[in-house]
Amino acid sequence: MRIASGRVTLVLGGIGLLFVALVIRALYLQVAQQDFLQNQGDARFRRVLTLEATRGVIADRNGEPLAISTPVQTIWASPAGMGPVSNEQVGALARLLELSPEEVRAKFADKKREFVYLKRQISPELAEQVMALGIPGVAKQQEFRRYYPAGEMLSQVIGFTGVDGKGQEGLELAREKMLAGQSGSRVVLKDRRGYIVEDLAAIERPRDGQTLTLSVDRRLQYLAYREVKGAVEANKAKAGAAVVLDGRTGEILALANYPSFNPNNRMQLEPEMRRNRAVIDMFEPGSTMKPFPVAMALENGKARPTMLMDTNTYRIGPATVRDTHPKPLMTVTEVIQKSSNVGSSRLALQFTPEQMWTFYDAAGFGRNPHAGFPGEVGGRLRDWKGWRPIEQATMSFGYGVSVSLLQLARAYTVFTADGNLLPVSFTRISAPPPGRPVIRPDTARQMREMMTTVTQVGGTGTRAQVLGFNVGGKSGTARKLVGGRYVADKHIGMFVGFAPATRPRLIVAVMVDEPKGGSYYGGTVAGPAFSAIMGGSLRVLGEEPDNPANNTLIPVDRLPEVREET
């Protein structure tokens, strides 16, 4: 009996010790290891879900959408929480997501991973088919995909977003903070199959992005893109661009580049297609600069529109300044109409280099236009202290100074806004901004009258006429600088002008880069595109003609080609 009693005591003592050990272990886990165990549990079943904010809409000045976000679904998996997956399920999932079974198995293989993307940005209908497979650990979440209704005609301006919804190019990048908004979050508890069991904290709602209203008019953008594309193809050119400005406010109503790309399908996107040439490319403007030394001379009383000038060929040191079509005498107006290098340079050389630099600087040359586009350039205007006489002469007709097309178009606001240089903007503004005075209103009026002769018979830009309207402007043809030398077989043809010339509403600048279709003169290759863009835009805006009776277009095939080259 004593032996049996001792055994019972021993067993009970052992059980008691085990019980005490369990109590100690439980206390240890509940107290000392509580944070560790809680974190381990959270890592397996607690999830913080990102609630995506809807990216802001980009709209044109009339509210037409140019960039919108549409809801899509992303399929992801948690290999660490997955159970066994059959071959049939893997095969079905691979077929739906257009992956190979090997790719799917590779994503499932690392059991230490808590999150892996299977397929991003698929349709909600396809996502439902995936979830119907019932694979443990496979889940979906909502995202947004950017869609661009304007397609290729505005792609370099709008830019695009990446798969993560962040802006990568253009205004999508420049206005990222405004458009992106702020994502929200939801803390949930999920079971091993990926289903939400409960919310563990209050939901933080996302804050959607703001709407960005551009100054661009989609109707005018269509016209500009169509005509630039047509000019590039017709002249077998390397590229082309066009800018349409409101001549009273400086708003950018259209800005087109070609070649272009479709931002909705970027599978074969080449770097050259992404270039917003009108804003980030620099070139020498050729004869489109001539109105500025003429305006400087008028402003300072050194010339009058009817004043006769000696326009014979002359020399500056070893260099010769000549015209394509020499004439011994021209009025100042004819210097503009006939695009005289001799006349513009003689006017410029009446001023010191510092005076000329100051005037060009006031007109915005060498300064960033600050339109709000990433990568925009300010051109190049060298310090006047290093100018030689021949360099000052060539700068009067557009060599030795570099500009962007947007910068050049902006400079012409000096003529349309009564002598004031206007700021330019990609966003719609409610009231005209104050400009910076450059010349007197009377000088600006005289310049408009003189520049109207360029599109009349005898001028270099007759192909830029618009039926029913007086058009002022200037053509330009410039040789390109290659390897430090000007080459004879590469040119840029340009036309910049405004209409109605008596009360300017629009400024249009067109550039055709390296035309190879037989002609390369600005009036010939860029003038017709200018005419079509300007005429169509004025009609769209309902602008009343300022010359409805006396303006008759001469058929293009009857117009002589005026060969102007600087």
TrEMBL record:
Cell compartments where the protein resides: Membrane
InterPro entries for the chain: Beta-lactam/transpept, Beta-lactam/transpept-like, FtsI_transpept, PBP_dimer, PBP_dimer_sf, PCN-bd_Tpept
Active site: residue positions: S287
A single GO cellular-component term on record: plasma membrane
Primary location: membrane
Recorded superkingdom: Bacteria
Cited SUPFAM superfamilies: beta-lactamase/transpeptidase-like, Penicillin binding protein dimerisation domain
Pathway where this protein functions: Cell wall biogenesis; peptidoglycan biosynthesis
Residue span(s) of domain Penicillin-binding protein dimerisation: 51-199
Keyword list, A-Z: Carboxypeptidase, Cell cycle, Cell division, Cell inner membrane, Cell membrane, Cell shape, Cell wall biogenesis/degradation, Hydrolase, Membrane, Peptidoglycan synthesis, Protease, Septation, Transmembrane, Transmembrane helix
Annotated ranges, domain Penicillin-binding protein transpeptidase: 240-534
Example of a GO biological process term: regulation of cell shape
Catalytic activity, as annotated: Preferential cleavage: (Ac)2-L-Lys-D-Ala-|-D-Ala. Also transpeptidation of peptidyl-alanyl moieties that are N-acyl substituents of D-alanine
Family from the record: Belongs to the transpeptidase family. FtsI subfamily.
Stated name of the protein: Peptidoglycan D,D-transpeptidase FtsI
Gene: ftsI
